[in-house]
Amino acid sequence: MGLIYDPTQSEGNLKMRWLNSKSSLDLVLTVLFPVFLGGCAAYPVNQTMENLDVDNRVDFANMREAEKLSNSILLFITFSGGGTRAAALSYGVLEVLADTPVNLSGKESRLIDEIDLISSVSGGSFTAAYYGLFGDQIFEDFETRFLKHDIQGDLVRQVFNPKNWFRLPSNNFGRSDLAAELYDKNLFFDLTLGDLRDRTGPAIVINATDATAGTQFSFIQPHFDWLCSDISMYPVSRAVAASSAVPGALGSITLRNYSGSCNYEIPLWARLALDERDIYSSGFHQADRINSYMDADKRPFIHLLDGGLSDNLGVRTIIDQFKQSGGVVTGLKSIGAGNISKLVVLVVNAETASEKELNFLESLPLAAQLGMASRIPLNRYNYETIGLLLNQIELWKTKVREYRCGDTQSQQGSGVSRCTSLDSYFIEVNFESLADEAEKQYFQELPTSFKLSSEQVDKLRNVAVLILKESTEFQRLLEDLQ
Predict the structure, then answer these.
(1) Radius of gyration of the CA atoms of the chain, in A
(2) How many CB atoms lie within 10 A of CB 435?
(3) Which of helix, strand or coil describes residue 202?
(4) Contact 348, 90 (CB under 8 A)
(5) What is the crossing angle of helices 123-134 and 236-243, to 10°?
């Protein structure tokens, strides 16, 4: 819970109570992290790949075909940032989907088995990666391994462990590298993104932020193609560590850039966008982003930070991939979804409210100011991202309808009509939708940390059930699937 204003207390006491109410990892590590003498250590390096199999590459997020009963529904889910709070809320949503039976193609199924893709950032990436690797096992041990485990305490203990004193000051090894080792030990067991890609179930896209470009970088082979690098042997733990690398608390994760050493060429749409140079178009900026990786001499290292810095909802992965696939029609065809009748986007948004208690302080604590520097633009960015997504969904529906119905005359007399509409469903799971103000305040004041109590975790799981039960859009989807 956050600070409650008490007019009988001095401002100094209020500041101390505000600081004590915060258990975020960035505060702990930034304030307490000691200064050591130099040492030497090295992080695992992403592997080069001389020959890219570009002819067999699936453009749309490198998706594989999920084992589903029905190809009539395309279900995308995004997991936001927000530490364990986001991971627990995302886990609760998966529990609901696992307990939701649907009737598709005359067969009973679970809604969770119809997920095509999960895009995640930061705290949400732990849940996404674990489910992608282990499927339903997540409901057996993820609580004890992560949600109700003091990961934050483990990280702090590793920082102060004498065996790491000469590794951490190295230019080739930092706190996020140490965190990745911990995640491997507790969660991911040295499994790789190749293992994640090859498992049955939905495609998992873990997102980070390119620290120097300020743009999203996704742990998918098409993005590693830019670097002439093979993603298959890259550890899942390091992808998740990059996705959750909070600036200041956890350092960046580094990738080596081998561009120019393989047969990769910038796509035609990107070359055209660069030639047209419409600096106000999103296509130009996406093309310019790809082009920035093409000179390894100028960018030999790519430094990645928390995915929430570029998109705290994980939504832009879906938008960008359709654009980079040449449009929604081409993108749907590339993943075998050209005939879908239902497009569902479910956004799990663990965003919290602003800390209104700070309004009672005459001056802001430094820690509060540092937190606001990232939180304020993220919260404003979230609203814009959702608005962009809703506009894109309407555009996608229009383009699909034009494609399917544009040549209806030639179909007359054939006995077959391809002119079918695309139904869309946008479902957002967020605390703002809660009707009970006290309940809403409780969840919006949960800290962004890697440590929550068992009670807080259970309440987050249960509130996911409540929000989806009260969601008119989710209930409309369930009715239409029967």
Answers:
(1) 23
(2) 8
(3) coil
(4) yes
(5) 160
